Amino acid sequence: MSHSTLPPAAGAPAATRTGGPASTVAVAVGFAALCLSYMLNAMDRQVFYPLLPQIREEYGFSLDQTGLLATGFTLGIALTGVPAGYLLDRLSRKLIVVVSVVVYSLGTLAIPLATGFGDMAVYRLISGVGEGVQATAIYAIVGAYFFHRRAVAAGFIGVAFGLGVFLGPILGQQLALAVDSWRAPFIVFGVAGLVMAVVLLVTVPKAMSEALAGRGGTADTADYTHVPASPYNRGTLGMGLASAISGLVFYGFLGLYPTFLREELGLAPAQAAWAASLVGFGAMMALPVGWLADRYDQRMLLAVGFVGSSLTGLAIYRFAEGASAQYVLAFLMGAFASGVLFTNCTTGMQRAVRPEHVGRGAGLFMFTYYVAAAVSGLLFARLVSAFDWSGAGLVQVTLLPILGLAALALVDVRRMVLPPRR
Fold first, then answer.
1. pTM
2. What is the DSSP letter of 211?
3. Where does the pLDDT of residue 221 fall: very low under 50, low under 70, confident under 90, or very high at 90 and above?
4. 177, 213, 229, 357: which has the fewest C-beta neighbours closer than 10 Å?
């Protein structure tokens, strides 16, 4: 990958808090390591969902407990978003990334040791804390170094996430079957995370991780006074509401989707795992979506994401009963809810703040998106109890995205940091 693909500050070497610019090769290697670490992050969190039926059977968890375990870990991501964003504007982003990977890996390694719902929920929360800080740091690094091309850079991160979502259920199911234990995947992924922390420590150049957003030299002398001085403004409010609705929709769907496929539609474990994986394949659409987001009004892209998620959810829970149809729809849900909504919410939030607040912009996204995601599984489980699966899907996955369209009315692109027109 070269600077011609993802140029920092529109082609100028990025100023940093620690020294001069990094070489193209060093940036390429460092960026690849960040992408790989985020792919492992996605694999780590995604492996839990297809194994939930086995975990539920062994421990005797209720559907409410299962839903809370499925998405409750995102509370850890949410709680760390704002403080992590604050620290990222002041401390070494590289060190924060490395420590966060160690934390979530230790949480993952502890899950097989759980004796019941309480301690398993704590271990999931610890994993969420580490994953949330890592994600906030990675998006802050990308947003600062690839300042005017941050959406397409975030698209590469989105592809890595999608690949992890795609591979996690498949590899996790194969590992569990190979040793006849659902615990094996958590041990393997936890150890892999500790190794990845060392890789990040060695490969990510500080000149990249500590870049000062928008201050890369004469190529970026723009006046940002049109952007509100406070990171807490109307634009971040609108993007925050859109992010919260996105989190409720995507994680409400994601957390119990394999359970729905197995218990309601009667699909085999391998079919449910394959469908869950195809969600990740759809999430890889983040790359072309990121390219579009650097060129067109992100509000329009978000509107497409909300409408697409709504119609796809309607088909999943109301009409599609066969495995083949679910495979196609799982791909579409990943494309709309992750590839479109996640990519545009996270970069849109950063564009709603001034360059010196890029870390807090990333943190605000993590907070709003994942607070909603944390309760989405429990909410969906309660809706299933009240209305059955089709009714729950109608309320949370089909009707809720319509509110996201209303949130976009608060966002004024004239008060945002926009990439230069080409």
1. 0.74
2. B
3. low
4. 229
Alpha helices in 2-149 (DSSP H): 24-46, 48-59, 63-71, 74-88, 93-110, 117-145
Q: How far apart are CA 67 and CA 380, in angstroms?
A: 7
Residue with tokens 């890369």: 216
CA distance 66 to 363: 28
- Rounded to 5°, angle at Cα 296 from 368 and 139: 40
> What tokens appear for 380 in the block?
């969906």
pLDDT tens-digit series, residues 393-404:
999 999 999 999
What does the alpha-carbon distance between residue 77 and residue 93 come to, in Å, rounded to a whole number? 17
- Please, are residues 76 and 376 in contact by the beta-carbon 8 Å criterion? no
User: How many other C-beta atoms lie within 10 A of the C-beta of residue 365?
Assistant: 30
Report, in angstroms and rounded to the nearest whole number, the Rg of the chain calculated over CA atoms.
20
Amino acid letter at 17? R
Helix (H, G, I), strand (E, B) or coil at 180: coil
Give strand pairing partners of 211.
Answer: 16
- Token pair for 307: 């409408």
Joined together, the tokens standing for residue 298 give 């992100």
CB 149 within 8 A of CB 214: no
How many Å separate Cα 239 from the centre of its chain?
15
Half-sphere exposure of 105 (CA within 13 A, CB side): 21
Are 340 and 305 in contact, with CB atoms under 8 Å apart?
yes
Q: Helices marked H in 319-357 — which ranges?
A: 323-333, 343-351
DSSP per-residue codes, 125-160: HHHHHHHHHHHHHHHHHHHHHTGGGHHHHHHHHHHH
Residue 357 has what DSSP assignment? G
Instruction: Name 61's Cβ contacts closer than 8 Å, sequence gap at least 6.
Output: 55, 69, 117
User: Distance between CA atoms of 205 and 172, rounded to whole angstroms?
Assistant: 32
Cα gap 289→309, rounded to integer Å: 15
Residue 125 CA to residue 131 CA, distance in Å, equals 10
Q: What is the DSSP secondary structure assignment for residue 107, as one 8-state letter?
A: H
Q: Which of 41, 125, 129, 115 is nearest to 81 (CA)?
A: 129
66-98 pLDDT per residue, tens: 888 887 777 887 788 778 777 777 778 889 999
